[in-house]
Amino acid sequence: MGKKKLKAGLFSMTCCEGCVFALFELNQMFPKILDFVEIVESRVLRETNPEQELDIAFVEGAIVSRGEIEKLEKIRERTKFLVALGACATIAGIPGQRNALPEKIQAQLQSKAIKKPLDSVHKLSDFVKVDFELQGCSISHSEFLRVLLQFYHKFIPRLEDIPVCKECKENQNQCLLLKGIPCLGPVTYAGCDALCPTQNAQCIGCRGFTKDANFESLRDLFREMNVSEQEIKNLFTYFNADPFKKEAKNNA
Ligand code: SF4
Ligand code: SF4
Ligand code: SF4
Predict the structure, then answer these.
(1) Which of 13, 44, 76, 232 has the most neighbouring CB atoms within 10 Å?
(2) Which residue of 166, 169, 171, 177 sits with most ligand 2 atoms within 8 Å of its CB, as the best mutation to test the pocket?
């Protein structure tokens, strides 16, 4: 192989580390991936080279503490390209559910914490420039490969602003809304090949909300379907506590 391998680092903030493990699965499926990339830093592989400059850093997890902000800033300083990996890193995801709790409960949690966390849970782009967001819980193997190869060939990958419904229709699924099942496909970024609806399960928004998402109309439809207010709130905030809260405030 003529070209130099990319020097990559894998980093984890607050999360289950499932996205980094998805990368290791990918390595088993496509061992040739190591023709393109050399992993120079990874907690799981016990590789530590803190002084090494990186071509690309993959960072999973949400930011919950000052220590994580500092760690993230240091990663940003030493890498040319930073990719947020998975729902926790791109939209605060499951750890971000704390942001949707009533303020009284949040205050109780804060008071019981051994180490004081930040007031709310954050996605990476709240603190540093993120060059690309690989969405999902966990990430999609094929999307990861595409982004890696694009970067290797010096293309800048971009996010397609299309909802899950488009892929769901391409798969010729019967719409779950017609069966009275609330589904977030109309407001969620595509890219997972409509994984959940294709298996008859509602989309719960793990790839984040599209820029022009029409929450109001979808919420009205859920109400017409007799979905309870609590269930609607749970569905909208399962992965996306922040956008839902902002949107709710705007409509207050
Ligand atoms: S996005 Fe999902 S799989 Fe990835 S680290 Fe977060 S919780 Fe785990
Ligand atoms: S099942 Fe969900 S994703 Fe599929 S078309 Fe209906 S609303 Fe969209
Ligand atoms: S269908 Fe929705 S919840 Fe399921 S993987 Fe795709 S974006 Fe995530």
Answers:
(1) 13
(2) 177
Chain segment 205-238, per-residue pLDDT in tens: 999 999 989 999 999 999 999 999 999 999 999 9
Instruction: Give SS3 for 154.
Output: coil
Query: How many domains is the chain partitioned into structurally?
Result: 2
The Cα–Cα gap between 185 and 221 comes to 13
Q: Token pair for residue 199?
A: 């298996």
Domain match, 203 and 96 both: no
The C-alpha atoms of residue 79 and residue 85 are separated, in whole angstroms, by 15
**Is 158 among the domain residues?**
no
pLDDT of residue 247 exceeding 70: no
What confidence tens digit (pLDDT) does each residue in 19-51 have? 999 998 887 888 888 888 999 999 988 888 888
Q: How many CB atoms lie within 10 A of CB 229?
A: 10
List helix spans (H) across 161-214: 164-170, 195-198
Nearest ligand for residue 169 CA: 2
pTM beyond 0.85: the answer is: yes
Residues with CB under 6 A from ligand 2: 164-165, 168, 173, 175-177, 183, 185-186, 194, 197, 203
Beta carbons of 251 and 245 less than 8 angstroms apart: no
Give the end of a domain, one of 152, 186, 205. 152
